[in-house]
Specification:
Layout (H helix, E strand, L loop, with lengths): L1 E6 L2 E7 L3 H8 L3 E8 L3 E5 L12 E2 L5 E5 L4 E5 L6 E2 L1 E8 L11 E7 L3
């Protein structure tokens, strides 16, 4: 499963995990979100609906490009830098390609769509 993230005039492609949370996320698409900076490492935004995390690992160590769900807050997290192990973080997918557009300071608007094959 693939999605695309449209930020300003750039389109990023991402391959999604084959998991229940990733499928639930895709079911919410298309989404238009305002991504806020968090810890100079990721961009975050609340999701309209929480994702089911039953049976998923307790947490993960994100790397640049990871798209994740942070269950304690119910938000989407898109990492543009690596970070330490975080309990409650569930990997949804991974961006393929450059992340420079995510490294800009301040909030950015994003449109996330299912990428039809």
């Amino acid at each position: 499963m693939k999605i695309r993230l449209i930020i300003n005039d750039q389109t990023l492609s991402a391959a999604m995990e084959d998991s229940i949370p990733a499928r639930e996320f895709i079911a919410q698409l298309p989404l238009t979100l305002q991504l806020e900076d968090y810890a100079a490492t990721e961009k975050i935004a609340p999701l309209p609906r929480r994702l089911s995390v039953a049976g998923e690992p307790e947490g993960m160590t994100p790397v640049a490009g990871d798209i994740a769900f942070y269950a304690p807050w119910g938000n989407l997290a898109i990492f543009h830098r690596p970070f330490g192990y975080s309990k409650g973080l569930i990997r949804l997918g991974r961006i393929q390609g450059g992340l420079q557009v995510l490294r800009t300071e301040g909030p950015v608007g994003v449109r996330i769509e299912f990428d039809q094959p």
